[in-house]
Design a protein that fits this description.
Blueprint lengths: L12 H19 L33 H44 L1
Length: about 110
């Protein structure tokens, strides 16, 4: 019943101007072909060396010695933290398995 009644839609001039401005602003984006912005892009070769086989950064001739030492110290601390976290995760997983096995035995009776 409510939807059967015909209600005319009247837009004010200000709203028509706003809609026209939005359409005009969006028009340049519509006219571009996809991928045009990177058509002439050529990647620059990496100056630094890639990380070593274990993920550690190799010697960087662009960095001073003290900066290299700080990076090595950080990487060592990061590796230690990863090992400790992995150890804790393994211990918690084993404890969870033990608890689940105990529950299984208790509920199987």
């Amino acid at each position: 019943m409510i939807l059967r009644k015909h209600v005319p839609l009247h837009l004010s001039r200000a709203s028509l101007v706003i809609v026209a401005l939005l359409a005009a602003a969006a028009r340049p984006a519509w006219s571009q072909k996809p991928g045009d912005s990177f058509a002439n892009f050529e990647p620059v070769e990496e100056v630094r060396e890639k990380p070593g086989p274990n993920g550690e950064a190799s010697e960087d001739p662009l960095l001073p010695k003290d900066a290299q030492e700080l990076l090595k110290k950080f990487e060592t601390e990061q590796a230690d933290a990863r090992r400790q976290a992995e150890k804790k995760k393994t211990e918690r997983r084993q404890e969870l398995v033990r608890q689940l096995e105990a529950l299984e035995i208790r509920h199987a009776k």
